[in-house]
Amino acid sequence: MYLFLSLIMLITSSTYAQSDGQLQNNLSIQSFGKAHEAEKVKTGFLGRSFLPYLTFELGQERFQTGKYQTYSNPYGMLEARFNLFRGGRDKLESGIRDHQAKIGSFNLDSVVREELNKVRKLQWQIIYNNELIKIIEDEKGENARIKDQATRRAKSGVATRSDTLEFTIYSSELEEALESLNHENKILKIALMPLLGLESEEGLRFSQSLEHQHDEELLRKKFSSKQNPQVARLNSEYESFDLQKKSINRWWTPSLDLYGGYYLYTLRDRDYLAIRERDDRVVGLRLTFELFDGLRSYNQGTSTHYQAEAKKLMARHVERQTDAQYLMYQEDMKHTHEVMHYIEDRIKKSKDYLKVTLQEYDRG
Question: Do residues 297 and 107 make contact, with C-beta atoms less than 8 angstroms apart?
């Protein structure tokens, strides 16, 4: 059963829709969803980098210079700055943020798969236990029927009292099995509630049967390890580090800015009594070069390069590991499928054997 679930989780892309809304109240998934939204908000950086930076400042200053009288003057400024070019670093930063958003999406996908896998394992175990409980209940009824027959046979001298005691002991064993299964179901439901975001067991619903479906489609499906969100996340982390390295290595490229503004000064800064003579208006272009940064960019770029390579190698490793895991599950699935056919045949023959045995017992 768990092999089947593991294979399903590998070859399908888990989403909220796929979980049939079961996980919409799962707080872990909601947490990763908020983290993903936080990364998505940061995207679109390239377009925003060309928007102007506006600064406004207004104040009143009281001052005295040396032995001269005290003055009180207003001051202020309105300044605008436009980014025209930063050596391509804005485009690289925008790409980094896009990959961070993808990483958040892959992290969300991974946690949905993990939580859904936990839920399905618990649910199928409960369904399996319910099937056993149903079988044991039927067995209790059959055991009570045969016990009554044994009691009548013992009273008539056809059988001994030990036959009756044997059925009595077996009835106690069945009661013990029922108690253990009900207890296990209670524990499983407690474990299931936080995964589904439920406060009580009332909202829990389970299907009533567990059947062997002869579905060969699952075994024929093609699988690519690149569908694994862990692999996709590692590939995006590699791309992100690679873009960071390229951005760091462009430390020397120039920046070009267009700026302009209006500035009002006090008498402390400009020695003119008339306020109209203490203001400036300016428009200009500023070209900035970094000439030397003490090799900090070289060291940081080299470190980022190794981080990128580490993510790339780990992605290839997880790909190989996932491919191997898929083949293992597929082979085990085939084996389990074949074994179930043998078991089904054995169950059929055992039913016939039981029927014949009970008929012989009834005849004495």
Answer: no
Report H helices in the chain. 2-11, 27-41, 45-48, 89-155, 161-196, 217-220, 229-248, 296-363
pLDDT at 330 > cutoff 90: no
282: left (phi over 0), alpha (psi -120 to 50) or beta: beta
What's the chain's average pLDDT?
86
Higher-confidence residue: 14 or 363? 363
**Long-range CB contacts for residues 124-127, cutoff 8 Å, separation at least 24:** 124/1, 124/5, 124/210, 125/184, 125/188, 126/185, 126/188, 126/189, 126/192, 126/206, 127/206, 127/207, 127/210
Question: Taking phi first (over 0 means left), then psi (-120 to 50 degrees means alpha), and beta for anything else, what does residue 20 get?
Answer: left
Q: How many angstroms separate the CA atoms of 39 and 182, rounded?
A: 45
- Is the CB of residue 105 less than 8 Å from the CB of residue 38? no
| CB distance 101 to 33 below 8 Å | no
Give CA–CA dist 120/338, Å, rounded: 23
Residues 251, 288: Cα–Cα separation, whole Å: 11
Position 344 confidence tier, pLDDT thresholds 50, 70, 90: confident
Query: DSSP character for 69?
Result: P
Backbone angles phi, psi at 262, to 5 degrees: -125, 130
More confident residue, 262 or 148: 262
Q: With a cut of 50, say whether residue 164 has pLDDT above it.
A: yes
Quickly list DSSP for 14-55. --TTTTTTTTTT-HHHHHHHHHHHHHHHT--HHHHTTSPEEE
Contacts of 269 (CB under 8 A, 6+ apart): 75, 278
- pLDDT, tens only, 94-111: 999 999 999 999 999 999
To which residue do tokens 């990128």 refer? Answer: 308
Q: Give the model's pLDDT for residue 163.
A: 73
State the average pLDDT over residues 22-40: 93
Residue 30: which of 112, 147, 129 has the closest Cα? 112
pLDDT of residue 16: 39
